[in-house]
Every structure is written in C-alpha cells, then in structure tokens.
Write a sequence for this structure.
C-alpha cells in the first residue's frame, strides 16, 4: 500500500507541473478511480468529447499549437484577438460561447462568482453535471461549425 501511495503521489506531482501536457487534468484529478461522469453519459460521442476535454486531447489552440512549438502565450483563440485559447478560456470566458454558457451554466456560474478561474475550472470539471456536459459538447460543436463556416484554418 505504501508503494502504491508513493506512486500516486509522485504521479500527481509530475502531471501538476506547468510543463506537463496534463497540466489541466492535474487541476481536478486528485484521486485514482472511476470518474462518475463516465456512468452519467450514455452517448459515447459525448462521453468522448468530455474525456478528451479533461485530458487536453482536443483541438483547442493550447494543444494544437503546442505541436508546432508555439509558446503558450501565442496560442490565440480564433475568435479573440490576443487571448490564448486555453481550456479555462474556452469553458469560462470566450465571448463566442457566452449565450451557450448563460443558457447552460448560469445558475452554476452565479454560485462560483467568487472563485478564481482555476477553482471554477476545477469545480466544473470535477462535479460534472448534465448542464456542464451539454455546454462543453455544444461549445465544441459551435467552434467546429464556426471554423469551417469561415474557412479559417489554424
């Protein structure tokens, strides 16, 4: 048991480093075990979208531009002029998704208004409810549609 505990502690410490690809995952993944959202979401496509978002295995600029060795500060959101498109920007503040966010997350966001951005991201990613799931899925679909519609490829 001690070796297992030591392994988990070292693993979580390593993924929590700012240079780690799993830096976002480390914000809300605090223990080993089955995540409850996996049981909540029956639709495999929606479950994959949420899982990929949590693991930073998505097509937001923070990831796609990482493969081109572009610094984090320059991985701009395709809809915002000078703001990096991180998971927290996508989920919490990008104006492109404001209507979706208000429709799906308004009551939750009101309760989190005094939280920091990282605390909000942690809360929403740890306590994944159906409204959060629908928001993330809809926002990714909207993002894909807008990027294809405007024929802007990043």
């Amino acid at each position: 048991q001690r070796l297992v505990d030591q392994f988990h502690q070292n693993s979580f410490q390593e993924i929590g480093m700012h240079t780690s690809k799993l830096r976002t995952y480390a914000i809300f993944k605090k223990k080993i075990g089955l995540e409850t959202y996996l049981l909540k979401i029956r639709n495999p496509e929606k479950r994959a979208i949420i899982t990929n978002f949590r693991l930073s295995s998505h097509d937001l600029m923070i990831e796609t531009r990482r493969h081109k060795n572009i610094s984090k500060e320059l991985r701009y959101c395709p809809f915002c002029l000078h703001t990096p498109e991180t998971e927290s920007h996508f989920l919490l503040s990008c104006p492109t998704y404001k209507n979706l966010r208000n429709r799906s997350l308004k009551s939750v966001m009101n309760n989190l208004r005094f939280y920091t951005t990282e605390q909000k991201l942690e809360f929403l990613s740890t306590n994944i409810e159906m409204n959060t799931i629908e928001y993330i899925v809809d926002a990714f679909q909207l993002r894909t549609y807008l990027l294809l519609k405007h024929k802007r490829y990043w």
Remarks:
- The chain has a mean pLDDT of 84.
- The CA atoms of residues 9 and 153 lie 40 Å apart.
- The radius of gyration is 16 Å.
- The chain has nine helices and no strands.
